[in-house]
Design a protein that fits this description.
The structure is a single chain. With 311 residues, the chain is an alpha/beta fold. The protein folds into 2 domains: 2-174, Rossmann fold (3-Layer(aba) Sandwich), CATH 3.40.50; 178-293, Alpha-Beta Plaits (2-Layer Sandwich), CATH 3.30.70. The chain contains 9 helices and 12 strands. The protein has helices at 10-18, 28-34, 60-68, 91-101, 127-149, 160-175, 193-197, 244-247, 302-305; strands at residues 2-4, 24-27, 38-39, 46-52, 70-71, 77-84, 108-113, 182-184, 203-206, 209-212, 229-231, 309-310. A 6-stranded mixed sheet has the order 7-6-4-1-2-12, sandwiched between helices. Helix 2 crosses helix 3 (60-68). The protein is globular and about 55 Å long. The chain binds flavin mononucleotide and iron/sulfur cluster (2 copies). One iron/sulfur cluster is lined by residues 184, 188-194, 210, 226, 228-229, 252-253.
Length: 311
């Protein structure tokens, strides 16, 4: 069984690459949204946790999930796969410690570098660079997959230097994550996709528009995939990141930042053109292909929106 947490698709993609045909793939976001933490595993079954690194540590949502997780048996092999922009610091050590507190023993941790999605701080990589990062990640995931199959005991992201970096960085995350600066601009069409995706349940729809109802969230960058969402001035006019897998079926809640020419680079990314602030006039762009505007309250492909998947 593989549990994955994702804000912008990297870790979901990684989990999909790692899962075997007869293995369950479970979305942590869906578990959190449905308060579902109890799972049965078979004898000799391995359990994986795939998630992004935030400030050298675990997303608070992943910590919450680990605290609440109830398994009927001890996994035969328990491993973590950490996706990051290249600096996982001591996140592997934090994973070991958090699992230990929950009575579980980590048998291996793996690290894979993927495009950095922290658009609040960085500008997303140009397409050519992104392609290289993703190609390298594919090769790394292939290697990790065979190590997992061999139930190797290997531990990434827990060096003393990494742990020291985490000790400095992670409190910044814990004390930040404030939702007060979130607003929407005039291009919001009230589709509720952002609210439906939020793992912190920090967004509620009020008068047809999202409202942030919690003081802090886990800062996963899922909602800001939609260019109608601003964070003070930090995101204004900036391209937002989502894994190319999620660009194939863009729809409500996936449109780009107004004025962000580089938004959603990639052929399938749908060069959305918000030529008008009137919702009805949204032009989702020819490249996007068959947008599904038909009543679905979430724009994500079934893999992300559908919750617990059995492959
Ligand atoms: C709040 C936040 C903090 C992040 N901190 C780090 C970090 O400390 N080191 C790093 O290499 N990448 C960092 N990243 C980048 C993500 O770990 C990386 O892009 C990840 O693959 C995103 O996964 P996802 O698409 O599954 O959400 C951070 C991203 C966010 C949103
Ligand atoms: S408010 Fe946005 S950034 Fe914060 S947890 Fe929810 S979806 Fe993620
Ligand atoms: S996903 Fe975007 S368009 Fe849809 S309600 Fe949220 S902010 Fe508005």
């Amino acid at each position: 069984m593989i549990f994955y947490f994702t804000g912008t698709g990297n870790s979901q993609y990684a989990a999909q690459k790692l899962v075997s045909d007869d293995e369950r793939l479970v979305s942590v976001v869906e578990c959190l949204r449905k308060d579902n933490y109890t799972f049965e595993i078979a004898e000799n079954e391995s359990v994986g946790l795939v998630f992004p690194v935030y400030f050298g540590g675990l997303p608070v949502a992943v910590r919450q999930f680990i605290e609440r997780l109830r398994l009927n048996a001890v996994p035969a092999y328990l491993y973590g796969v950490l996706t990051s922009g290249g600096s996982p610091a001591g996140a592997g050590a934090m994973l070991r410690d958090r699992l230990g507190e929950a009575g579980l023993t980590l048998d291996a941790s793996y690290s894979v570098t993927m495009p950095d999605n922290y658009v609040m701080l960085y500008t997303i990589s140009p397409e050519s660079e992104e392609k290289k990062i993703l190609a390298r990640a594919d090769r790394d995931l292939e290697r990790i997959r065979s190590k997992i199959a061999g139930r190797r005991r290997t531990f990434a992201a827990r060096s003393p230097i990494g742990k020291a970096m985490t000790a400095v960085l992670y409190p910044v995350y814990l004390n930040g994550r404030k939702t007060a600066p979130f607003t929407t601009n005039e291009t919001c069409i009230g589709c509720a996709a952002c609210a439906n995706r939020c793992p912190s349940r920090a967004i509620e729809m009020k008068d047809g528009h999202p409202t942030w109802v919690k003081e802090r969230c886990c800062f996963c960058m899922s909602c800001v995939r939609c260019g109608a969402i601003e964070y003070g001035t930090k995101l204004t006019g900036k391209a937002r990141y989502k894994h190319p897998m999620l660009r194939k079926k863009a729809g409500h809640g996936e449109h780009g930042a107004p004025g962000a020419a580089a938004h959603d680079h990639g052929a399938a990314a749908a060069g959305h053109d918000h030529g008008s602030s009137a919702p009805a006039a949204h032009d989702h762009g020819a490249a996007a292909g068959g947008h599904d505007h038909g009543g679905d309250d979430c724009c994500c492909p079934p893999d992300e929106a559908g919750g617990t998947h059995v492959h």
